[in-house]
Amino acid sequence: MSTPEQLPPLTEGYKDEFGPIDPQVYQAAREIWPRAVRFGEFALHDRSLVFNLMMKAVADVSKSIAKGTYIEHLNGYLFRTFKHRVVKEREKRLPRSEPLSEESEAVVSVLVDLDRKILAREIFARLDQRNREIVQLRMMDYSFEEIARILGLNNNVVRTRWYRLMGRLRANLKDSNIP
What is the span of the domain harbouring residue 119? Predict the structure, then answer.
């Protein structure tokens, strides 16, 4: 099986050895492929296996959609499915007692941070305009009082919205199994 730098285009109704492939899921796989290759090669050191695991993940997600499962963020869901397959494969190949090197731990840390940033962006994109303004101003190190003055809101309203937003972000990070 080939391991293209970029996954090739897909025609409607394609079915491979892993099952029927939904064109939308395959398009999502094309979008996340560069990130998936970095993650998979780091974990497994075998690019052809990475491609195989991606196609299995695409087939899994396609089957879920065919069963009627609603998937809000297809790219994120597909990447988590792929990562799950990579981790399972790594567990099969490596003894559990093998510790990570410092370099490996650093790469894992970077990948986790990247996943957090992507998830945070997805959550930020779903916010209404007022909450987005609060987050932007808070990230620019404005105090709650300053934000309230700028937006013409009560200080307690700004504070409450901020803590609710941060709680939602923490819950989403927890739900996505990102440490």
Answer: 104-179
Rounded Cα distance between 109 and 128, Å, is 31
Positive or negative, the CA dihedral 9, 6, 71, 20 is positive
Please count the structural domains in the chain: 2
Shared domain check, 168 and 84: no
Q: How many residues does the chain have?
A: 179
pTM metric for this prediction: 0.50
Question: Helix H segments across 45-154?
Answer: 47-66, 74-93, 102-126, 129-139, 144-151
Smallest CA-to-CA distance from 91 within 43, 36, 33 is with: 43
Q: What Å distances lie between residue 61 and 4, 23, 37, 110, 151, CA to CA?
A: 21, 11, 18, 26, 43
> Exposed (0-12), middle (13-18) or buried (19+): which is 79, by Cβ within 10 Å?
buried
What are the tens digits of pLDDT across the range 105-153?
555 565 566 666 777 777 777 888 888 888 888 877 888 898 899 889 9
- Helix H or strand E encompassing 20: strand 19-20
67 and 117: one domain?
Answer: no
Please indicate, yes or no, whether residues 108 and 94 belong to a single structural domain of this protein. no
* Domain CATH number, residue 155: 1.10.10.10
Nearest to 46 by CA among 89, 9, 99: 89
Quickly tell me which residue has 């803590």 as its tokens: 163
